[in-house]
Amino acid sequence: MSLLNAFRAATALTVLVSTSAFAETLTIATVNNGDMIRMQGFTEDFTAKTGHEVEWVTLEENVLRQRVTTDISAKGGQFDIMTIGMYETPIWAKNEWLVPLDDLGDEYDAGDILPAMAGGLSYEGTLYAAPFYGESSMIMYRTDLMEAAGMEMPDAPTWDFVAEAARAMTNKDKEIYGICLRGKAGWGENMAFLTATGNAFGARWFDEDWKPQFDSEAWANTLNFYIELLNDAGPPGASNNGFNENLSLFQQGKCGMWIDATVAASFVTNPDDSTVADKVGFALAPDTGLGRRSNWLWAWALAIPAGTQKEDAAKEFVKWATSKEYIELVAAKDGWANVPPGARKSLYENENYKEVPFAKMTLESILSADPTNPTIDPVPYVGVQFAAIPEFAGIATQVGQEFSAALAGQQTAEEALAKAQALTADEMEAAGY
Amino acid sequence: MARSVTTRRKTLNTLFAWAVGLLIFFPILWTILTSFKTEAQAISDPPVFLFFDWTLENYAAVQERSNYMRFLWNSVIIAGGSTLLGLIIAIPAAWSMAFVPSRHTKDILLWMLSTKMLPAVGVLYPIYLIFIRMGLLDTKTGLVVVLMLINLPIIVWMLYTYFKEIPGEILEAARMDGATLKEEILYVLTPMAIPGIASTLLLNVILAWNEAFWTLNLTAAKAAPLTAFIASYSSPEGLFYAKLSAASTMAIAPILILGWFSQKQLVSGLTFGAVK
C-alpha cells in the first residue's frame, strides 16, 4: 500500500514538474478586428488544453505592421507569434525570418486550407503563415434601391452594368449615391481597390522585366473609368473615404453599392448598427469580360518568427487557433455567422454554415482570385491587390496619393499616371530591378 | 460711460476666451460624449449631441477586454520616473548655465535643442538595437531612460529660463553665509524656483504621458502604457468609435484631472517672467 502511495506521489510530482517545465507564456501580436478579439476571449480553452499562457499585444493595423517589422528585422524577439498578411509572408519567408509551418501534423489537415490562401501564404511551396481568416472583396448593394431603379443585379455583373446601375440609383438631393468606393490614399486603401480593379481592365503593375506599366492603355482606362464613375455617382469628398467612411455611409443608407472587403458583410447586415440591414444583397466584384474580376484576396495569418525560444508552444497555438476544432468552438458559443471565414474548405461544406447569407459569395470571391496569376498578362510578382516585393508599400502609397489627387480634381488622370510611371521607374531602378 | 465700455469689453473678452477655450476643448468633450453612445449613435448623421440614451456598455466592454490598471500603472511609472530623473539631471545643469555661464553656454543650449529637430523614426533602429543588447525592450526602465532623454532639453531650457529670473545676489549671499554648492541648490535656489519647477514637472509629465512613438515601438506586453491601450482599440476595418472613445477617455482621465487641479501652478509657471 505504501509502495502504491509512493508511486502515486512520484507520478503526481512528475506530472507537476513536467507541466510547469513545459508551460510557457506566449506573447502574440495581433490586429484589432472582430475575429481576433473573439479569439482572445477563447484563450482559456487553449490554456486548459496545453498549460501555456498567452499575453496579447493588440494594435491598430498600421501600427502593428510597423511594430512587428521593426522587431523581426532587428531580431528583437519580442513576439512568439505575429499576425501578418499575404503581403509580408513571402517577403519575410524569403529573408528566412519565419519558421516553416509544414510539420503541423496529420490531424491539423493542412490540405483543408483553401488553395488560394495556402498559395498566398507560402514561399517556394512551403507554408510560412497559417490563415486565421481570409477575405476577398465583393459588391454589397441595396436591394430596394436596385429595384426602384428598375434593374436586377446578376450574381456576376460587369463594370458597365455596375456603372449604369450606380448612375440610375443616384439621387444627390436625397444624399443617396449610387456607388461608394475607396479613395483615400494608401497602398492598402485606394491602391488595393484600384490594383484589383486594374486586373479586370487588363492592367498590371510591372511587365515580366519589372518595367512599370502605368503608361499602358489599360491603366488609363481603369483610372478614367473610376474617376468618372465616382464623380457622377459617388459621395462628395470620395477621395477621403476608406473602409470605415464607406461603411458608415452604407450603414446610414447613403450608398446604393459598395465594393469592399467581404468582412464588411457581417457589419452591414447587423441590425444593431446598420439601418439597411434587411435590404442588402451581395454579388461578385465586377469584370469587363476579359477573364479577371476586380476582387482582391487577403488573409490574416499567424506566423512564428525565426529565433523564438518557444517554437514548440507557438506551433501548438497556431495549430489550435487555425484548426477545424477552433471553428466549431466559436460556432458553439457565438453562432456560425461569427466563425472566422475564408480559410478552410471544410467550413464551406458545413451545412450549418451554408445558411449564413454571405457565405456563398465570400467563398466564390475567394476562389476567383489567383495571387500567382492576378491579371490578364503575365506578371513577375505574387499578389492580387499588391506586388509582394519590399518596395511595393512605399511606391504604392505615393502612387495612391497621385490617384487620390486626380479623384479630388487636383490633376487629370493622365497627369497622375505620368507621375506614377516616373516615380515607380525611379524607385525600382534605385532598388536594383 | 467709460465704466460701461470697460464692462462691455470685459464681457466680450470673457465670451471670446470661453469660445476659444470651448473650441480647443471640443474634441475632448466630443470623445467623452461619444464614449457614452452606442456604436450606431456614434456615427449617426446628423450627430447627436446630448439627447441620446446614455450607456456604460463601452466602458464595460473595455474593462472586460483589457487590463486597464496595468496600463495605467505603467504610464504612472514611466511618466513620473522619466520626469523625476530628468529634473535630477536638469536642475544642476540649468543652475550652472544660469549662474556660472561660460562662453559656450548659449551654444550648448542650442545644441541640446537641436536633438529635438531630428524625427524620432530616424533613430528608431539604433535605439532598438541598443535596447536589444541591453535587455531593455519592453521594460519600464528602458522607457524611463528614453523619455527622460527626449524631454531633457525641454526641462533644461524651462528651468534655465526660470533660474535666470532669480537674482544671483541671493545665491551669492548664501555662499557668503557658508552654504555649500549642494545646500545652495537644495535650500536656496530650489525653494525660490518652486513655481517654475512645478510647472516644468507638470508639463513634462503630460508630455511623457502622451508620448506615443517610443512607448508603442519599445514595448510589447509587459511595459505597455496607456498609449498602447488606446492603439489597441483603433481599427481601420470596423466602426468601433464608441469603444475607442471610452478607451481614450479612460486614458486621458488621470492626466486631465491632474491638469485641472494643478492649472494654477501650470499657468503661473508658464507665465513666469513673462512680464518684467
How would you describe what is shown here?
- The complex is a heterodimer of chains A (433) and B (276).
- Chain A is an alpha/beta fold.
- Helix content of chain A is 45%, strand content 13%.
- Chain A contains 19 helices and ten strands.
- Residues 15-21 of chain A have low confidence and may be disordered.
- Chain B is mainly alpha-helical and 276 residues long.
- Chain B has a domain at 66-232: MetI-like (MetI-like fold).
- Chain B is 73% helix and 0% strand.
- Chain B has helices at residues 2-34, 39-42, 57-65, 68-99, 105-114, 124-134, 140-164, 168-176, 181-192, 194-210, 214-217, 226-231, 241-261, 263-270.
- In chain B, helix 3 (57-65) crosses helix 13 (241-261) and helix 7 (140-164) runs antiparallel to helix 10.
- The interface between A and B is large, with 41 and 32 residues.
- Chain A: Belongs to the bacterial solute-binding protein 1 family.
- Chain A: It comes from Sulfitobacter brevis.
